[in-house]
């Protein structure tokens, strides 16, 4: 095999190493794009779910739900669905990482002279840069169709989407860690339905006032509630929390989402990278 | 004297209560093929994982091309290729997509990565299937893709963990051809296998592993000579078993094993002392009607029986895979 190219020497400088990490991670982001191209069916499936949720909640359950402070239920609902689709990143990453681990692809990556953080970073990055924006675009499209609108101008609207993508990035590290922990596709599959109750035990679909006191505390401290409340506030949709008896995260939802993101990132990003490197040792 | 390219010294590894490696020593000289032969649970995969930097030994040391597998992982990783028991490729991508991705992850420039992917696909007979999703490949094609993924850069050492387990004979042959091509190019190969004939076909040296230790080493010929070929005789009439057994005993000087239910006689033939033709002639002369007379290499079971006094099936404590398949040669 006289034509085998030589192995480029690993860079010694910090800048060079960062470049390698970025290059490796971007190849893995490209991998997700290729997968999407290979399986456009996934995109169709991704379109169907939000469609069903909008129909089910916007027109079936929503007809019986009173929006606090008055207003259109579908305007109230859409920020909740944005949160739900954002939270689903946990499960999506868990599945993808667990699949790689069970197929042995991860061992191949680990036995290659790649940057150590590149694999988790690539998988999380692919979600934040590709799947996340795509899911939001689809959801926004569905929302616009049923009459949802942002009311606070382009800056606040952009802030809302940036906030959703930020926490999606943080949440996908949680998923990455769980995927490494679970380590195989089939077990991960069992956990996926858990995403639904976690998303629903919040202010996303119904106001929390009617819940029993203890459940209300759980729901209001659920990061999903903060995400939804922050979106409502920034988009100017009805149901933005008011009143004196609000729990702390709902009184300052934007700050709460920022804090949640920072905490999740600080805990789960290093944990994921460490677990990835130590896997099977 | 030049150090062997793979050196393992006193490797220990424990997983919970399972002692996978118990002081394993192994050396592989550069440019040779070493076959590590053993049943499930012998420690073969653990050995490969340690040498490929995927696991750390609890005790002992290992070096690849002079670099320590624990302290100099990056240098080691730049010099090895690894193909495991499962085809470690992305099922959702095409064959070409996989190779391009891995080439880029080896930090080849894009153009070079594409050229190399095309070249390898062409050379190993996957060019036609290159643009199909790997999920639709046959088992043999998938393993071949897995194998050539290791060859994107020319690795100094290639680790192959049971490269043909679970493949049909035709696919096995294809993988063997692929490995032979590599060896001809000068790559050092360390392969594990449960099949003696696989080690025999490919390896310069064989190391037999049992309970986490190397219990015998040697060239395939040396090991075979030590164990002898196996002669199986199936008689047409069970009533002639005794007479048949005495014919075989007369020829070899040893007592054959009698399997009355299948009217079968089996015996080890040390070295080249007895030819098949002699057996047929002597049986004929004694008036014993044979339905089948065959000479074959010893199976792994028989290697183990002879080396350890226990059968390979007993060794595979808790292993969930099936015992090695006996094959007539």
Could you walk me through the main structural features you see in this protein, from its secondary elements to its overall organization?
The complex is a heterodimer of chains A (281) and B (329). With 281 residues, chain A is mainly α. Chain A has one domain. Chain A contains 13 helices and no strands. The longest helix of chain A has 30 residues, at 153-182. Chain B folds into 2 domains: 6-224, P-loop containing nucleotide triphosphate hydrolases (Rossmann fold, 3-Layer(aba) Sandwich), CATH 3.40.50; 229-297, Alpha-Beta Plaits. Helices cover 35% and strands 26% of the residues of chain B. Chain B is globular, with a radius of gyration of 23 Å. The two termini of chain B are 40 Å apart. Residues 315-329 of chain B have low confidence and may be disordered. The A-B interface holds A 1, 3-8, 10, 20, 23-24, 27-28, 30-31, 34-35, 38-39, 103-105, 107-114, 279-281 and B 49, 52-56, 74, 77-80, 82, 84-94, 97, 101-102, 104-108, 112, 116, 119, 133, 149, 151-154, 182, 185.
